Amino acid sequence: MFSVGAYLQIAALLAVTFVSFFIWTYLTSPSPNLVSLSDPKLLRTLYNTRGDYLKSKFYDVNSAKVGHEIIYNVFSTRSNKEHAHAIRPVRKLFTLSSLLKTEPLIDATIQTLLSELDSNFVLGENAGKTCKMDNWLPFFAWDVIGSLTFGAPMGYLDKGCDFDGSQRSGVETFFYFACVGQIPELDYFLAKNPVMRIGPPAFNGPAILCAQRVAERQKEFEIKGKTAHKDMLEDFMRINREDPSIMDENAVIGALIVNVLAGGDTTGILLCAIIYYVLKDQSVYRKLMEELDAANLPCPVSYASAEKLPYFDAVVKEAARMHPGVGLILERVVPAGGLTLADGRVLSPGTIVGMNAWVIHQNKEIFGDDAASFNPERWLRGKAETDEGYQVRLSIMKNHDLTFGAGKRVFESCGSKPRMAHPVLLVYEADWDRCKASEKEQDRGLTSIRG
């Protein structure tokens, strides 16, 4: 019989051999199997509504392992059939009419944010202190997601810090996704190891958190026979109780993971981008303030009020174009028949292809010669432009917007547009004269969010 130490040595040797094999296989591949494309004419081919360009194994890494089960979600599943099955029962929860019912929860979180900013950086002995908005805006975003998903904020605004490490874990999770996704087979040795998880944080932590919330809510239901909660967790569990074949418990957990990670992360990034670009450009700032002053806005700003602000809407679109939340290639697999490129070359079936929003959004043919600059005016009709010409130009830009993906698997953005009313009030309350941070410091802050 071998000793425990001997077994550990054998396991370590096998681990090194396993990792070395896959790294060597990828590095010595006779030809690259991933092609990054930047031709905007191919966007509607790769990301069409038929879905014949399936997602690659890259997305498998986005699934989570809880216990001995691997839980897929609407983002990680590669099967169009499974995706349709998962999205069908919850799609109605993300409609505009459904999300507008949650405005009181969002308004309460806005008031909490403003109160915390006042007490920590504006009033009394704290007046004039530097406020790291790239911390507070994610706190706000995650608290909003907590309210919508679990019926109560996560508590980051009240505590003023990442008190439970969840946000840091979220950043590390996406870093794991970005790196291990390049060799997705490694995920089954690391985070999804059947014996013991190895390596950095993956999606297991957030999955366990969501599983715990489901168990707590289920226990409450079993004791009381009913629950009075009005949140997405309750909506998901009601669907599960009515018909588990439509949405089983794993599907509930998967839906919660998408809400918590994708919702909190992308919303926080976009809020930071909006504030950053507006405060960096005084002409944009002044023009936006003029529109907000003239609008006689309520506090907090409602979606109905924000919808009537064309320049603000342009600012949001431009911030999303300049700083999309996902900086990775949205990978797809070339189907049978191959893919013919503009120069006549043909990529064979099975080749992994994809586009990066950070590349497409800088295309001058689509977004103009100043595509590298922040210019909200590009989303508005020019003085010398006909309405027909403007509509054509606007349609072209919208059709090449990869902020939330495109085609059959476009990301259900959790009703992100209603939440775009939030930064109106934040910018409106800002005092340009207090923004003393250097451009270098601002760039560093935004880069840290890009993560």
Structure description:
With 451 residues, this protein is mainly alpha-helical. It folds into 2 domains: 1-30; 63-319 and 421-451, Cytochrome p450. 53% of the residues lie in helices and 6% in strands. It is built from 20 helices and 8 strands. The chain has helices spanning 4-27, 43-46, 80-87, 96-100, 103-122, 133-150, 156-159, 166-180, 204-224, 232-242, 249-280, 282-295, 303-306, 310-322, 357-360, 364-367, 387-399, 416-419, 422-429, 439-450, and strands at residues 34-36, 54-55, 64-66, 69-71, 329-333, 339-340, 346-347, 352-356. The strands form 3 sheets. The chain has a 4-stranded mixed sheet with strand order 1-8-5-2. Strands 3-4 form a two-stranded antiparallel ribbon. A hairpin with a 5-residue loop joins strand 6 (339-340) and strand 7 (346-347). The longest helix is centred in the middle third of the chain and has 32 residues, at 249-280. The chain is globular, with a radius of gyration of 24 Å. 35% of the residues are buried.
